[in-house]
Amino acid sequence: MQDDWYDATDWRSFVERVLEGRELTQRELAKRLDLSEGQVSMMLSGRRPMDPARVDGFAEVLGLDAEARVWFEALVDLESRSQRSRRAALATVTSRLQQRASPDPAADVHDAIANWPFEVLTELVSCEGFRPDPRWIAQTITPPISEDEARRTLQLAMRLGRVAVDDRGRWTITDVRTDSVLPKARAAASALQRKGFAELAAIAMFRPANERHDGSVTMAVSEERADRILARLRELEQELVQLAIDDPGPRNRVLHLGIQLFPVSEYTDTDADPEGEG
Length: 278
Hints:
There is one protein chain. This protein is mainly α and 278 residues long. The protein has a domain at 1-77: 434 Repressor (Amino-terminal Domain) (Orthogonal Bundle), CATH 1.10.260.40. Helices cover 54% and strands 2% of the residues. It has helices spanning 11-22, 26-33, 37-44, 55-62, 66-77, 83-99, 105-114, 116-124, 134-140, 147-159, 183-204, 223-245, and strands at 163-165, 171-173. Strands 1-2 form a two-stranded antiparallel ribbon. Strand 1 and strand 2 form a beta hairpin.
C-alpha cells in the first residue's frame, strides 16, 4: 500500500488518492460499481453520503488489502450516524496518525499553538454540521485555507487528541497538553498565532458591521488606574468567554475574541516637580 494514502483524513480524499495510484478514472470506478458516473461524482464531491452497504464494493474495486480496508472503513465511519462507530473510527484514525507523527512531540504542540487555523478548527468541530472533510473545512474557515492545510491541521488535532466524540455522539474538543514545550518556545509560538489573528482582524474590517466589532483608543493614565483597567478587562474577557461556554446552541459559527492592552510609552518621571522647583 502506498504510504501517502494515509495522508487522507476523509474517505473521499482516500478514494481519489487510490484512483490516482491505480491509474483509474471515476468513470471506470462507477462502471465497476454499477453506478452512474454522476452518482460517483456526487459522492466524491461531498454532495452525497457514502451508503455503508457500498463500502465492501468500493474496497473490492479499489483493490484494498486488509490494512487499507481497515483505514478506509474507519474514514467512512467518521461520518457514521452511529455514536459507537464514530468513536471507534476516531480511535483507529488517531492511533495511526500518532504512529506517523513527528519524532519530536514538542514540534506538534508548537505547531498547534503557532497556527491560527488550529484554534479555529478545534472550535469548528463543536458546531452543527461539522464534517471531518478537509475540503469542507478549507471552504468553511474564513478566510478560506488550502485543502492541504486543512488536512494537516485536522491530522494535528487528531494526533494531539484535541478532538473527540462526546456522550451525545457529537464531535467536540478536549485540552491540549503543552508540558513538552519550553516557555520560550511557547511564547514564540503564541506570538506567531497572534500575528496570524492580527492579519485576520485586518481582513475582517471589510466584513458587514453586524458580523464584527472593532475599537481602538490610546490613553494616558496613572499606574493605579492602569492596574484597575487591566483587572476589569480580564473580568470582561472571562465574562464573554463564559457566555460562549454557556451557549445552549445550536452552534454554527466560530468567532475570535481579541483583546489587547499594552504600553506604548516608557514611564515618565512622576517625582518631577510640575512647577519646575526643588
